Amino acid sequence: MTASVTEFTVDPWDPGYAAALSVEALAELGPTSAELVLDVERDAADWKPVDPPPGTVAPEALLIADGVRRIDARVWVHDPSSPMPIPGIAASYAAGIVECGPSGARLAALEVGRSLFSASPYTPEVKTTHATYRAERASGPSMDELSLALQRQVTQLEVDLAVKYRSLADDLLLVDGPLRGRTHLPRTVGYIKTHHTAYLPGPQSAVVSALAPGQRTPVFLMGTSWRRHAWYVRLPVRSSAPWAGIARCEAGADLSVDEVVRLADTLTLVLPSLAGVDYKDPRAPQNLVPIGGLEKLLRHRLGDPALLYRALRTAAHS
């Protein structure tokens, strides 16, 4: 008797990372609690893969911004108004911008910050022999609240760099991650590599799975705790996994349909040439080559974690 063979597909991402599309998202391919307006660019019943139209041109410069963060030490702030010490974190973070143009990619801007986060109004600035950690207030003492305060600082550093660096009227800024906190920046798109929630109903989600490399879905409007335009795009990939090579892009909700469609077409044209390759990056192709290179450089610039940890301990006992 011949045993039956069950077909399966291996997700192209390294198993050390979360899958590009999580099991939870696959289970939510029906309606979600997100507010959706599907007929922004075309009727919901008429969704199909979209190719960049003839005449679509690359921007004068594509700027890619990213940030990294690292907790150097967990700390306790001795607050005179509290009977118990208040937990905090000492963290290093960095943000940078890569400019991509006809001649290649180059580092355009980079900045490192260090802060001590705590809910205490008595959070001190900490000066060590190797670095100074500025005092920053968190909304509460839990690790989630401390982590959120750190992430807000990373986002603000990215925003500050973008405002200082951008000079071309025809540039386009791609930020790694959701656009939240950066919707006020002009000509800016958020780039999401992993999918923890499948926002689209079944028929439109099937269009995502049907995308060929270099194609996108129609633009739609989505709202959770905040509103934004969005679309999905597929990058070049060898895998046949349902959402292999799929990234989601986000743009401001206040943009006109023409503006959003122009951004979507431009990025769908440009992104395939920047896609990561699987023999170099376990998160390929969604982890774009400039993003991977920038992340590596930013982490290096954070400094030696063991050295900073020892410096913080020395400062605490001085």
Automatic annotation (TrEMBL):
SUPFAM superfamilies: Ribonuclease H-like. It comes from the Bacteria. This is NurA domain-containing protein.
